[in-house]
Structures are given as C-alpha cells and as structure tokens.
C-alpha cells in the first residue's frame, strides 16, 4: 500500500517539475504553444489518475490525543470516526489515562509508530518527551499532523500542519465578555480587585494560550479604562504574559495551577480564589477547570451576576458546564468545534498520505461564546457536547 502512496507522491512531484520547466508566470503559460498546453493537460490527467489509484481502504491512521477522560476528546473522536468512515480509512484513537501522564502518552505514540501507519495525528502533552519519536516518524517517512495544541516547538519538518482553535484569540474573547460584565466594578473600585484564572497546567500550549489570551486582553481593556494590572500566582503565566506588571495595581490577575491534574486540586484552587474577598471574576480555561469552578460554587454559592456575585466563565462544553451556563452560574463559556476538529484532522492526514501537499496547512477550527440565551441556536448547539 505504501508503494502506491509513494507512486502517487512521485507522480505529483514529476508533474510539478514539468510545470516549472514550462515557466512559472501566467503570461508564460498563456504564450506557450498549443502542443505544450496539450502536454500540460496530459500531465494533469496523469496526476489525477495516480491519486485515484491510491488504495484508501488499506490506509491506517494512528491518532494520539491528550486523553479520553474529558467529553471534549470524545467529541474529537466522534469527528475522527465520522470522517474516517466517509473516506474509507481505518483509524485508531488513543490517549493517556490522565493529561498529566506524559510517559503513558509517549508509550502510546511509540506503539502507534511501531504499527507502521500511513500517517499519525498527535496532540502532545509535552513536546520534549516526543522529539525522538518525531525524528523516528520522519526517518520512517510517516507524516505527522498536530491537532488541538499540536506539538509546539517540534523539530523542523516533523509536523506537517496543525488543526486547532486559535486558543489565544479564544481566551481573549472570554476576557472581553467577562470584562463587559465587571467593567463598572473595575471602574468604581476604591481598592484593588481580583480576577481569578484556574488553569489545569502550565505545560500544554492550548491551556497556556487560553490563559494568556484572557490575561492579556483583560489587562489591555483595564488599561484602556485607566486602570493598572498585575499578574500573580503561577510563574509561567507571569513570565509569558504581555500585560504590564505593576505593583499595587488596580486589578490583580491571579493564576492558579494545581501540582497535578486532579479534579480535587483544581476545585481547591477555585475555592481559594472565590474565597478571596476582593475577587470579582473567575475564568476556567478548559472543561476540567470550568468544572472545578462549578464544583467549588456548589459549596460557596458565589457565582452569578449581580450585587456581591463573582462573574464566572468557562471554556469547552460538557453536561455540567452547559447546565451551569443555563442556570446562570457561569456567565457563558467558549466552545471550540471538537467534532469539526476531528474531521479536519483526518482530512489533513488523508491529504498528507496521498501527496496533496497544497491542502496540508495549519487550520483554525474556530470558537464561539455561548450563553443561556444562545446555547440552543443551531450554529452553537452543533459544537456543544455532553
């Protein structure tokens, strides 16, 4: 089967070479003799025939996610399986027991490569841990496509493209919505106010960027209203934030990251933030962290909109989060398009495997802000999973 794929890629390369020899400009192509145009047409037909000759029924894609315990990954898996069925390819979707279990993911990626697949999809928990395996994939001519947070900082040429949400922009959108709800409190405060950020880790690119997007945008909006900000808490977020850090600032953006990714530890972080007397808002940068806020609020009953309430926002979806939005516990949440991400991933893997290099490029799969008012809209509902 791989010989057939190689033949298709070789044919495409030969056609590209012929086209380049005929001249790259539009004018040159227009001025070419009729006989040369016939050759070009024949070359294009050869490429189409070669692509059609690929035996897709024998294609196998290994996909290594960050886990299977969150409904988000189940939604990605659903999209993967739908697109695989449409294209007639085989997929194997795996993930570690926990998003902190880096060693297990490394073992899963090694097993995936040992299966000699047509292509591999990877959402890495830690890039450093998989660099040697990415080199192995290159040496074995196995194309790798990143998804979700992808593989930031991967060795050059080892990951051909990535499909994901623009996580920084998504975090910024959450900040805009939260700031709009607390703007008057920020403006009228006679003492510093606190905005909490619950992040499950400081290693995953997607989680980090959602946090940084929120932090930077909130600080930017506060500055536009004449208020200073300071980022405290986790060192990674403090160092990487673009926000101007000012001691004695009007707004304290407090980032909490647990020692390990457990529901109990993240709920404890959320509880601690909500118990700070100056906290006016709190944000959870993924399903895990949003659920931690919801859990903490079950005991504290502090989240909502109105006098004395803490404005809360989440990220992703899941039954608990959707219900919290509907009940007004969360002002709203950011949803990605996990099913579409899974479908896009398989399409990119297929394009890489069949030599359709022009189609293999980074793809933003989008995000939306959903609330109790719009979560039933068709455009939003298709991206919500329970």
From TrEMBL:
PROSITE patterns: PROKAR_LIPOPROTEIN (PS51257). The keyword Signal applies. Residues 26-35 have a biased composition (Low complexity). Residues 36-46 have a biased composition (Basic and acidic residues). Residues 1-20 form the signal peptide. It is found in: Cell envelope. Residues 63-356 form the Periplasmic binding protein domain. Residues 22-46 are annotated as: Disordered. Keywords: Signal. It holds the Pfam family Peripla_BP_4. It comes from the Bacteria. InterPro entries: Peripla_BP_I, SBP_2_dom. Belongs to the bacterial solute-binding protein 2 family. This is Substrate-binding domain-containing protein. The lineage of its organism: Bacteria, Bacillati, Bacillota, Clostridia, Lachnospirales.
């Amino acid at each position: 089967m791989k010989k057939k794929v190689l033949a298709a890629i070789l044919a495409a390369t030969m056609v590209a070479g012929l086209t380049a020899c005929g001249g790259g400009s539009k004018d040159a192509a227009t001025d070419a003799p009729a006989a040369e145009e016939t050759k070009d047409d024949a070359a294009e037909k050869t490429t189409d025939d070669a692509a059609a000759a690929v035996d897709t029924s024998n294609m196998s894609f290994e996909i290594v996610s960050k886990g299977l315990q969150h409904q988000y990954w189940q939604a990605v898996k659903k999209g993967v399986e739908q697109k695989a069925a449409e294209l007639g390819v085989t997929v194997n979707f795996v993930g570690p027991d926990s998003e902190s279990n880096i060693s297990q993911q490394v073992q899963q990626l090694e097993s995936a490569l040992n299966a000699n697949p047509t292509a591999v999809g990877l959402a890495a928990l830690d890039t450093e841990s998989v660099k040697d395996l990415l080199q192995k994939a290159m040496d074995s001519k196995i194309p790798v496509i990143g998804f979700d947070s992808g593989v930031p900082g991967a060795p050059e040429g080892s990951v051909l493209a990535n499909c994901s949400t623009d996580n920084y922009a998504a975090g910024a959108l959450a900040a805009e919505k939260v700031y709009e709800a607390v703007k008057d409190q920020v403006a009228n405060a006679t003492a510093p106010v606190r905005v909490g950020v619950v992040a499950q880790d400081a290693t995953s690119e997607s989680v980090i960027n959602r946090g940084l997007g929120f932090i930077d945008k909130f600080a930017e909006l506060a500055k536009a209203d004449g208020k200073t900000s300071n980022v405290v808490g986790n060192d990674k977020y403090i160092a990487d934030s673009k926000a101007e850090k000012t001691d004695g600032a009007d707004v304290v953006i407090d980032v909490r990251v647990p020692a390990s990714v457990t529901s109990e530890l993240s709920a404890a972080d959320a509880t601690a933030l909500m118990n700070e007397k100056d906290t006016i808002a709190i944000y959870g940068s993924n399903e895990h962290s949003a659920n931690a806020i919801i859990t903490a609020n079950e005991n504290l009953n502090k989240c909502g909109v109105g006098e004395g309430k803490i404005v809360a926002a989440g990220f992703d979806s899941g039954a608990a989060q959707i219900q919290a939005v509907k009940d007004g516990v969360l002002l709203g949440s950011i949803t990605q398009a996990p099913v579409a991400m899974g479908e896009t991933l398989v399409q990119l893997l297929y394009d890489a495997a069949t030599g359709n290099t022009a189609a293999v490029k980074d793809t933003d799969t989008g995000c939306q802000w959903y609330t109790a008012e719009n979560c039933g809209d068709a455009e939003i509902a298709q991206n919500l999973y329970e």
